[in-house]
Structures are given as C-alpha cells and as structure tokens.
Amino acid sequence: MNENVLGIVAGILTSVAMLPQLIKVIKEKNAEDLSWMMITILIIGLSLWVWYGIIKDELPIILSNAFAVLVNICLLFSYFKFRK
After folding, report:
1. What b-and-e string marks burial along 24-47, b requiring 16 or more CB atoms within 10 Å of the CB?
2. pLDDT 10s digits, 17-74
3. CB count, 10 Å around CB of 6?
4. How far is CA 38 from the centre of its chain?
5. Which among 59, 55, 74 has a CA at the least distance from the CA of 11?
6. What are phi and psi of 2, to 5 degrees?
7. H/E segment holding residue 33
8. Which residues contact residue 66 at a Cβ distance below 8 angstroms, ignoring those fewer than 6 apart?
9. At what angle do helices 59-82 and 3-16 cross, to 10 degrees?
C-alpha cells in the first residue's frame, strides 16, 4: 500500500473519530460524561502533531490533525456550554 494513502486513510479515521461524540453532545445538550482534562490534553497532543507535520512538510499529518484539533476545540466549548 502506498504510504501516502495509508497516512490519508489513518488521518481521516482519527480526525472524524470524535465527530459522533460532538454531535451527541450538541444534540442532547449534555456534556456531563466528558472529561475536559482529557479533551484539553488531546488538543495539545494533536496541536503538536500539526507542528510536527509542518516541520516535516507532511500534508496528511497537518490536515488530519488540524481538523481533529478543530473538532476537539468545538467539543471543549460544548463541554463548558452544556455542563450542568
């Protein structure tokens, strides 16, 4: 398998992994079961992957992790908006 295809597929899967959680939180307006600390640590880790991708000039790493950062930032905002 081509390494770029592998990277793109892996990036897509990991990038969209949190979308069902975000949709559920927004739909139910309930974020009680989420850990803001876990989301924050994940955002930091994903941001470091973006930085790494920029250093290595690897577009699949940059794009997939940047999208995942955005999804998780939305999830973090939703946590603070919908927590009880």
Report:
1. ebeeeeebeebeeeebeebbeebb
2. 999 999 999 999 999 889 999 999 999 999 999 999 999 999 889 999 999 999 999 9
3. 11
4. 12
5. 59
6. -65, 135
7. none
8. 50
9. 0
Q: Where are the alpha helices (DSSP H) in the chain?
A: 3-16, 19-28, 36-56, 59-82
69 close to 16: Cβ distance less than 8 angstroms: no
The residue count of the chain comes to: 84
Give long-range contacts, CB 8 A cutoff, 24+ apart: 35-42: 36/76, 36/79, 36/80, 39/72, 39/75, 39/76, 39/79, 40/76, 42/72
Whether 46 contacts 65, CB under 8 Å: yes
Report the CATH number at residue 21.
1.20.1280.290
Range of the domain at 25: 3-82
Query: Does the pLDDT of residue 84 top 80, yes or no?
Result: no
pTM given for the model: 0.88
Q: Which residue is associated with the tokens 């990036």?
A: 11
